[in-house]
UniProtKB/TrEMBL annotation:
Keywords: Hydrolase, Nuclease, Signal. Residues 1-17 form the signal peptide. This is Deoxyribonuclease. Pfam families: Endonuclease_1 (PF04231). Belongs to the EndA/NucM nuclease family. It comes from Ferrimonas sediminicola. It comes from the Bacteria. InterPro entries: Endonuclease-I, His-Me_finger_sf. GO terms for molecular function: hydrolase activity; nuclease activity.
């Protein structure tokens, strides 16, 4: 049986990476609309497709609106590694921020990388901003049963355990793929989460679909999925 990594690499010749962030969002709606068992990334809310958008079911995950009802009622495509985090390391950002970087080809590729994009409730996406991920040991309290904690004063976010492995593998991928600089403490945390929270079959299926559309894999996910497949089919 050919390995998952080989199959994903072979698909690169027929896949077409999205040319912009907007193009990536359109492709991701189709990816997630047909992804078995998929829910919003942080809160685990069910959703349904309506035209070109995905609409969340807040009752399905016990979500309580903190402040922004309009944004809570929609799904937004969240950069796990924020655009600020990789953008401000580029000269274009220093000279004019995100708007100016939209003219920079390297930034456009990074901004549209679907391995770094996940569906999140708009309010959670807005509250997270570009705060760094952390394990603060806090009991979630802000969003009902959604186990997300945003420390606005400390500019930190504690994500649910269900999302930590995927977050870690995304950070490690962005570091290697685009030379995004991580602090020593960030790198250590992501390596720890990668080990503590291995891939699930659902993460592997999502990765397979994204890789086939975009043209290349996230090796940190692909390698674990390959091992998961081997263990399931000895």
């Amino acid at each position: 049986m050919k390995s998952l990594l080989f199959l994903l690499m072979a698909s690169a010749s027929v896949a077409a990476a999205p040319s912009s962030f907007n193009a990536a969002k359109k492709q991701l709606v189709s990816v997630y609309d047909q992804l078995p068992g998929a829910t919003t990334f942080y809160c685990g809310c069910d959703y349904r497709r309506k035209g070109k958008k995905l609409l969340p079911d807040l009752h399905s995950c016990g979500y309580r609106v903190r402040k922004q009802k309009t944004r809570a009622d929609r799904i937004e495509w969240e950069h796990v590694v924020p655009a600020w985090a990789f953008g401000h390391q580029l000269q274009c950002w220093q000279e004019g921020g995100r708007k100016n970087c939209r003219k920079d080809q390297r930034f456009k590729v990074m901004e549209a990388d679907m391995h770094n994009l996940v569906p999140a409730l708009g309010e959670v996406n807005g509250d997270r901003a570009h705060y760094r991920f952390s394990d603060m040991g806090q009991t979630p309290f802000q969003y009902g049963r959604c186990e997300m904690v945003v420390d606005f004063k400390g500019r930190r976010v504690q994500p649910p355990e269900r999302a930590r492995g995927a977050i870690a593998r995304t950070y490690l991928y962005m570091q290697e793929q685009y030379r995004v600089k991580l602090s020593g403490s960030q790198l250590k945390l992501m390596q720890s989460w990668d080990n503590l929270y291995p891939v699930t079959t659902q993460e592997c299926e999502r990765h397979r679909r994204v890789s086939q559309r975009q043209g290349w894999p996230n090796p940190h996910v692909a390698q674990q999925c390959q091992q998961l497949e081997a263990n399931a089919n000895p």
